[in-house]
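Please produce the structure of this protein holding adenosine-5'-triphosphate.
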Amino acid sequence: MSETILVAIDGSDHAWKALDLAAEIAKNRSARLFIVHVVPYEPMPESLRAFARAENMPVEEEEARFHYARIVGDELTRVAEDRARKAGAGEVVARAAEGRPADQILAQADAEGASMILMGSRGLSDAKALLLGSVSHKVANRATCTCIAVK
Ligand code: ATP
Ligand code: MG
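Below is the modeled complex.
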């Protein structure tokens, strides 16, 4: 089986940079490129949801927001796949997953047998003081394969 390189994208400039580097590495190594975006989802505890319902609070708002994020995430992966192909990557697979971003990135890397994970050093948040965002920090700490934080 050929080597798999995974790149995690969140739509940030750093992540696009990581995608371009990942596509270049995949091309040069004739590796498979696996692109993943995680639609962040943290289920509301059922008892809290029941409380909200009893208080007639609109729990559908949370679902509607998640549904929209899923649509945006699917489009993001499509655009990324296209960009990677244009950059010369051969076998490209793009997928939108749901859950906690770092956990999902690690689970996908494991499931795909990735030899390498590329991410942006930072993402969409504005915390300029951070050298590494929390997702790339967690992934780099817990991954068993090579991790590249692209700046
Ligand atoms: P934080 O989210 O901790 O406030 P941040 O947004 O600046 O800070 P991270 O979220 O760690 O930093 O983003 C760093 C990189 O991790 C991104 O460039 C991207 O490669 C990856 N990443 C972040 N969130 C996701 C996600 N939801 N799906 C896929 N990759 C992600
Ligand atoms: Mg972030």
